[in-house]
Amino acid sequence: TGETPSRKRVLLKVSGEALMGDGAFGVDQKTVERIAGDVSDVVRGGTEVCLVVGGGNIFRGVAAAAKGMDRAQGDYAGMLATVINALLLQNALEREQIPTRVMSAIHMSSIAEPYIRRRAVRHMEKGRVVIFAAGTGNPFFTTDTAAALRAAEMECDILLKGTQVDGVYSADPKKDPTAKRYDQLTYMDVLANQLSVMDAAAISLSRENKLPIIVFNIGESGSFGRVLRGEGPFTQII
Ligand code: UDP
C-alpha cells in the first residue's frame, strides 16, 4: 500500500439511474449485465478498476425529505439502496469470471466486507474489482462525493462518472436544442457556474487531490473502454 500503482487504476462511478435501462425505476438486469461486460473488458485489458454505485434508481434521501421524511433517515435508506445495486453488479461481474469484492461503508458483515482502505488497495493490486457500497456511510452526502473520496484514497489516476448524457452541456440537451457539450472544463468552471454535473463537495475534493474527472454516457455499449482510450464523446474536468 502507498506505492504508486504500476498499472493504470481508475474509479468508475455508476449512477443508480444507469442501471434502470429504459425503465423508470429499479434495475434492468440486461443493463446491469451489459455494464458488467464493459467493466470486464477493461479489467481484462489490464486496468485496475473500482466502482462506486449510486442508489437513485431505488431511493433518494433528498426526495423523501421533500415529502416529509426525516432527511438523515432517508439518506440511510438511500445508502442501503446502493448496497442492493452493488450486489447485483458483483453478481454480473462474477458471471464474467471477474473476481469482485463489495466493501460497504456501513457494516453488513453477512453480505459485504467492511471498508478498510488498505485491504481495498490489496484487492485491486490482485486484480479484483472492488465495489464500494453505502456511499461515504454518512447522511447528507452523495455517492458522487463517495466516488471522489474513494478515488483519492485509492490513488486512482482518474475518476469516471458514467451518466445518461455524453458529457457536460451548457444547458439540458433534452430541453434546449442549442445546448453545447464542453470538451474540457476546470473544476472552478463547474463550481462558479454551478454546472449540474457533480455536487460541489465532490468537485472540491477532486480539485484538492488533482483528480481528473471524465463525464461520459455509460448507456452506450463499450463506452467505458473507449473513453479510457481517449475516444470521445466526453467532458474532461481538470
Ligand atoms: N447517500 C448518503 N450518503 C452517501 C451516499 C449516498 O446519504 O455518502 C444516500 C442519499 O440519500 C442519496 C442516496 O443515498 O440520495 C442514493 O445515492 P445517490 O443519490 O448519490 O445515487 P445516484 O444519484 O448516483 O443514483
Automatic annotation (TrEMBL):
It is an enzyme of class 2 (transferase). UMP binds at G55, D75, T136, G137, N138, P139, F140, F141, T142, T143. SUPFAM superfamilies: Carbamate kinase-like. Its EC number is 2.7.4.22. Pathway: Pyrimidine metabolism; CTP biosynthesis via de novo pathway; UDP from UMP (UMPK route): step 1/1. GO terms for cellular component: cytosol. Its main location: cytoplasm. ATP binds at K13, V14, S15, G16, G56, R60, T163, Q164, Y169, D172. Inhibited by UTP. GO terms for molecular function: ATP binding; UMP kinase activity. One of its GO terms (biological process) is 'de novo' CTP biosynthetic process. Homohexamer. This is Uridylate kinase. It comes from Acetobacter cibinongensis. The lineage of its organism: Bacteria, Pseudomonadati, Pseudomonadota, Alphaproteobacteria, Acetobacterales.
